[in-house]
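Work Package 4 report. The design task specified in the project plan requires that, given a folded chain encoded as structure tokens, an amino acid be chosen for each position. We show below one input record used in the internal validation round.
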């Protein structure tokens, strides 16, 4: 009501003096501070159009449009701000750059991003920008225009976003209801809906989930456990008919858990234990085996506006302690809407990493197999999934060839829309070119073998007269390539074929085999064999260990008279007797693997040494002065392949 009075006042009296304009600015501060951006932007624009100028006015005008994703208007007022205020907070350089990207003015956007980088060189967004000066070219290279996207029929004229498949239905959030309006964007509050794709390929009429889930406030972003009996979802901080606010009178987003009863109805809805009135927790995504839950939050320890977190789902269904995924992923801006697919690839949206504008969708392949969050390869998903506007809420089906995402790009029905996508199977041509390291001479007749990450042979070919061999391989899969040629050192290289529009070329140089290996040499050191990993308390050969043992097999086949002694060592954890038995079993298991691959038993021997020959002389005792670090344990845990006869 107050905003309407102000607008009427503007209309009647025309704001004829600066004093009255300043008074109005103070009067609308409350609406602005309470995120009523539509109301405040209308009033502030009228003030500005009457000729009043100030840094505060342009900041609030730009922000009101920026936070409502109206980037063209935001760019207009941020541009005026840059003219009159040369000492503005550098964050406004970043926001101005983002709005210019949304308008596809990339050169101008990069100019302002460079100014932001000069002002805040240690900001992670600056570091990322400096590290990728050709980010647009990289995104173009990653783009796959064979992907077919479609605006779905059930989108409304307001916001629809955030999909998940459950019981063959699409569950998503929509503001199509007729309840009270949300001050931020003056659209109805979001509810969760479901639609079904019938046999004719048509979507049924959207159906709102029950009152156990939907309230008079926001609900969105559902994710289900593998059995479908538990749903995690986002809701305003509203529980037991009470709306809760933080110490700034802001109602935050929270994450809730819903449980299905024997009648397949949602009966019990409870908040997660790490919710708080003081911060938001939202946009859950459960991994394929139901052991981890990814989500976004601005809880204490967050790097920016919101970060991606993960928490363990214990066997009894309780949740552990949230872990921030770190500053390689999370920037000082916004990372949100995580999704983990069945292969363990992590997708998320960000406006902090270099992108096309607004929120872009990024991916970290094989994220769940990573042990070091400090060395992650973050890749922009490229066009047409990403655009110059906001692109978010990515979701894939099981085979990862089809899925959904949400966007407020041009051509939609209104607000945010849901798009489906279909990706053709990606196969790329790999061109391998072999040369002599010293003479640069083309090497013909070399055997090039491709293995998958489990050690299975995929393909084997011989280089032609030009030293070239061609393979057609699937994208985004890790392979081991091995090159063998008589009188040369056998060479191996791990590769992953990127999903790009370009043929992949690889030039490799082979070194003449001058290395003499003698009795007493450890093949693990000679061949640079990684640690042969075993699962805890087990001694069966894992597939990642098979790839390393293939190197030993090559040498044993090249030297048919060679005999080796396999020695297995543990770290100091566990009892002496336990470690002795465990290492013996592991050594024997390794020997049996080589026998199964064709090496005769008389060429092999195996022995376990337990913890008797530690490389790092540290102690596992509780009262030890020289306590072992995890790195020490890794060095002590090793396999040796000692040559005892040639």
């Amino acid at each position: 009501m107050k905003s309407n009075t102000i607008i009427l006042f503007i209309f009647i009296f025309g704001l004829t003096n600066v004093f009255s304009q300043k008074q109005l600015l103070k009067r609308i501060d409350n609406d602005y501070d309470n995120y009523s951006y539509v109301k405040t932007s209308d009033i502030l624009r009228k003030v500005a159009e009457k000729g009043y100028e100030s840094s505060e006015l342009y900041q609030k005008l730009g922000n009101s449009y920026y936070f409502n994703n109206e980037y063209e208007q935001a760019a207009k007022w941020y541009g005026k701000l840059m003219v009159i205020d040369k000492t503005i907070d550098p964050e406004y350089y970043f926001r101005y750059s983002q709005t210019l990207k949304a308008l596809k003015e990339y050169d101008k956007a990069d100019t302002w991003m460079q100014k932001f980088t000069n002002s805040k060189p240690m900001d992670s967004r600056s570091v990322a920008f400096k590290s990728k000066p050709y980010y647009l070219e990289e995104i173009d290279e990653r783009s796959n225009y064979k992907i077919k996207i479609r605006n779905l029929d059930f989108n409304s004229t307001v916001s629809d976003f955030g999909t998940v498949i459950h019981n063959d239905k699409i569950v998503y959030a929509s503001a199509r209801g007729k309840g009270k309006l949300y001050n931020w964007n003056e659209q109805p509050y979001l509810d969760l809906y479901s639609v079904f794709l019938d046999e004719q390929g048509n979507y049924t009429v959207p159906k709102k989930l029950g009152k156990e889930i939907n309230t008079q406030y926001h609900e969105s972003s559902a994710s289900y456990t593998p059995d479908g009996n538990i749903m995690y979802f986002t809701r305003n901080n509203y529980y037991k008919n009470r709306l809760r606010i933080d110490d700034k009178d802001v109602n935050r987003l929270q994450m809730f858990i819903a449980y299905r009863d024997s009648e397949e109805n949602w009966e019990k809805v409870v908040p997660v234990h790490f919710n708080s009135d003081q911060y938001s927790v939202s946009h859950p995504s459960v991994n394929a085996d139901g052991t981890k839950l990814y989500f976004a939050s601005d809880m204490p320890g967050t790097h920016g506006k919101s970060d991606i977190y993960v928490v363990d789902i214990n066997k009894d269904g309780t949740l552990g302690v949230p872990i921030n995924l770190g500053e390689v992923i999370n920037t000082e801006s916004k990372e949100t809407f995580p999704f983990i697919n069945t292969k363990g690839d992590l997708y998320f949206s960000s406006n902090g990493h270099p992108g096309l504008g607004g929120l872009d969708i990024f991916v970290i392949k094989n994220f769940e197999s990573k042990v070091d969050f400090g060395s992650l390869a973050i890749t922009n998903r490229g066009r047409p999934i990403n655009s110059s506007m906001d692109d978010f809420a990515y979701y894939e089906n099981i085979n990862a060839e089809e899925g959904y995402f949400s966007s407020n790009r041009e051509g939609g029905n209104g607000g945010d829309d849901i798009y489906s996508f279909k990706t053709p199977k990606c196969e790329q041509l790999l061109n391998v070119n072999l040369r002599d390291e010293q003479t640069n001479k083309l090497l013909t007749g070399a055997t090039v073998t491709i293995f998958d990450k489990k050690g299975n042979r995929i393909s084997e070919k011989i280089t032609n007269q030009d030293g070239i061999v061609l393979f057609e391989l699937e994208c985004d899969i890790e392979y081991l390539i091995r090159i063998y040629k008589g009188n040369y050192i056998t060479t191996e290289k791990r590769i992953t074929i990127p999903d790009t529009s370009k043929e992949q070329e690889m030039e490799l140089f082979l070194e003449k085999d001058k290395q003499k290996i003698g009795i007493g040499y450890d093949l693990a050191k000679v061949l640079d064999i990684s640690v042969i990993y075993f699962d805890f308390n087990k001694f069966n050969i894992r597939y990642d260990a098979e790839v390393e043992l293939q190197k030993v097999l090559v040498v044993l086949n090249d030297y048919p008279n060679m005999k080796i002694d396999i020695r297995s060592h543990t770290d100091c954890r566990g009892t002496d007797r336990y470690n002795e038995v465990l290492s013996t079993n592991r050594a024997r298991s390794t020997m049996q693997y080589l026998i199964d691959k064709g090496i005769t038993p008389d060429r092999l021997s195996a022995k376990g040494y337990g913890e008797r020959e530690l490389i790092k002389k540290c102690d596992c005792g509780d009262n030890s002065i020289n306590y072992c670090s995890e790195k020490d344990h890794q060095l002590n845990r090793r396999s040796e392949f000692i040559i005892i006869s040639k």
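Confidence is low (pLDDT under 50) at residues 1-19. Validation will be extended to a larger panel in the next phase.
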